[in-house]
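Table S2 (text version). Query chain:
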Amino acid sequence: MPASKFRRHFTDSAVVWLGWFLGIGVPVVFLAVFFLLPTSHLIARGFVSDSGSLDFTGLSEVLSRSRTWRIIWQTLWMALVATLVCLVLALPGAWTLYRTRFPGRALLRGVVAVPFVLPSVVVGVAFRSVLGPNGPLEWLGLDGTATAIILGMVFFNFSLAVRTVGNLWVRLDPRTEQAAAALGAGPWRRFFTVTLPRLLPAFAAAGAMVFLFCTTAFGLVLILGGSRTGTVETEIYFLTTGLLDLRSAAVLSIVQLVVIAFSLWLGARARRWGASTQKLRTDVSAHPLSRADLPAFFLTVTVILGLIVFPLTHLLWRSLHRSGAFTFANYSDLARSDAARVLRGSVLESAWHSIEVGLVATLVALVVALGISVVTTRRLRGVWGRRALAGLDALFMLPLGVSAVTVGFGFLITLNRPPVDLRGSWWLIPLAQAMVAIPLVVRVVTPVLASIDPRQREVAAVLGAGPARVLWSVEGPYILRSLAVGGAFAFAMSLGEFGATAFLVRPDSTTLPVAIYRLLSLPQAQAQGMALAGSALLALLSGGVMALVEGLSDRRASTGGGR
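Corresponding structure-token output:
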């Protein structure tokens, strides 16, 4: 072999091995330090005594309390009711928004997608402005009740249920229904005997995910339920910050992990069931809205206007009023450092801190997610190599199965001693938020890279491009676009993150969601008005980021850049 060719082969091999080392080593170390270590320590806290010996008395003591079982039951039944309501409303919603065609359908679908990306604090404040004191629905007496929390949960997850069911509905092979019609079956009989059974996997998958999100709701329950109605998440928070009972909080976190694991297992089973039983086609064309579709149409529009549009518009309207008078004082007070005694600075300073933390958390999430996405989309020939990559991908999905409250609590009790002592460190919050956002970015980037035709890489290699050049020239454009979308999602999530941040925030570095929650604790009209204005500002920031995501997606689709 000529010396030049040998040097090039050696260099290419070194680049490949360095890429594998960085792509696997950096993400795995990050996951081990900032997820596996805190989570394992949290679990051990429930089974190990202060002396370090195995001790189950803490577990039995917490589970023997009637309050514990009341909180667990309250969490489960509220999540179950909210899930059932979402699924029932998703049936007419999916039919109207995915199987029929009418002017304004794209606008309604956009409105339905808004709640899922809004910070939980914003949603809690919006519903409280409607149901709470001086709200238009105060007369219902729902403020601080389980019904208010369930309505907020439905607000959040209605879009997820509609999208999951609708995406399957438009891909069902219509020939089965056509055959049933040819045999004399009427519309209702065709629906209940042919269509609905084929939609059950989508309902099961949507139900599992909605139930998961409902059981892990934190900011929403904290604001709407207060001290009257709590869940496992809020109980962990109160045990930690109010009573300093870390062991009881750890036991409840273990209970939470069991519920989440069951929800994820059920969702995975539902997806595999759907994949094994369905023969799907490309999207079926939507038909023009007919007279028979009007009941589903009006029900869907009523839900969208009453459940989504009304609370958000009322939040904006209330933010422009104080003591019944129209004013911009709520917004001008956001810049005043002396406007609220529960904050050391102004609300705008908290907003700027949220942006700084969000940018750092997004950058960390992008770096880690990029490495794991590039590695797991390599096509290895050996069976064990492919299994190892699949296991690595599943490993980085584990944070999806742990709530943000558990992540924050784990950071609080673990990263406070050498060799990883981050007590008082500014980096604690962005690292926690990055850990929450990484699975989301991986799920955005990985499918894009996996969809690239491997022949493009092979052609580039045949033409003399090395591994780094192939990665940059062939996959680079796809990576940049998917990272832009994933980064926007991660940034929006970090802006509104409240569960982990509530445990880790310091008085001199309050984020906007935490500032809003603290303002709500004050009875003065000024503080309440500032909370409303701060919520509107947070909604604007998050909504602007998601509008950017939609713009990037539309531009990619119009230029033919997507796959």
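Notes on Table S2: DSSP finds 22 helices and six strands in the chain. The beta strands are 100-101, 287-288, 321-322, 325-326, 416-417, 420-421.
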